[in-house]
Amino acid sequence: MPAIADARFQRFPQDSSLRVMGRLAGKVALISGTGQGMGRAAALAFAAEGASVAGCDLDEKTARETTELVEAAGGRMISVAPVDLGTAEGAQTWVRAAADAFGGVDILYNNASALRLGSFPEQPAEEWYFTIRNELHLVYESTRAAWPHLVARGGGVVLNVASIAAHRGAMFVGQSAHGAAKGGVAAFTRHLVVAGSRHGIRCNVISPGPIKTPATGGFFDEPEGPAKSVLNTIPAGRAGEPEDVARLAVFLASDDASFINGADILIDGGLSALAP
């Protein structure tokens, strides 16, 4: 894979320690929300490690851009967009497209989500239901659609993205719906560990802290906002980047993590190590 190796170094210019090792060679990875941010970074990183990637997004334009980036770097990727993973039909359409294109499914990375922030009880009920649907129900629908393919493959990996909000509250913004949804994702994953044990399916949680993405850029860029005070509390001294999360996901999806099952890994620069 010489072509994609060069592309990956360009994608991660600040980290000269990165090496492409083909840890996911021959694997088929479903990654949701690949139009931008952590999903796009994951698509590039998984493809760089040899996986065939089946992405999806609500935004057809950005989804296509990610596919073009992966293919230009020498990787293999298809994308289904627009698709609503909050419905059984949408999730099944995505999974079928991956299985038809690549012959099966080995990895499901439930990255996509959409949320509404607001303090309890001022937040309207419809924003609660929106967040639960688009951060918890879509994980259920995607996993339900992909599960038979993982079983048929003789094993595989499910990675679910939760959040530091599933572990602790925040004074600077109301996150009751977001925290409840992501807490549900983490709990759901623990039960998937049990369900997957006899099929050789490993299931883990990635819980990011403050990550700078197109979706969160407004928070970090707001001059009078709380971002500065939040960043000052992170021992690592910076916000996370989508590539930080992508590298963790690649590791957890690979055989290097074959004995990691049922973990919930906080990737937050040390923020959760501090007292609330």
From TrEMBL:
<dbReference type="InterPro" id="IPR051122">
    <property type="entry name" value="SDR_DHRS6-like"/>
</dbReference>
<keyword id="KW-0560">Oxidoreductase</keyword>
<dbReference type="InterPro" id="IPR002347">
    <property type="entry name" value="SDR_fam"/>
</dbReference>
<protein>
    <submittedName>
        <fullName>Glucose 1-dehydrogenase</fullName>
    </submittedName>
</protein>
<dbReference type="InterPro" id="IPR036291">
    <property type="entry name" value="NAD(P)-bd_dom_sf"/>
</dbReference>
<comment type="similarity">
    <text>Belongs to the short-chain dehydrogenases/reductases (SDR) family.</text>
</comment>
<dbReference type="Pfam" id="PF13561">
    <property type="entry name" value="adh_short_C2"/>
</dbReference>
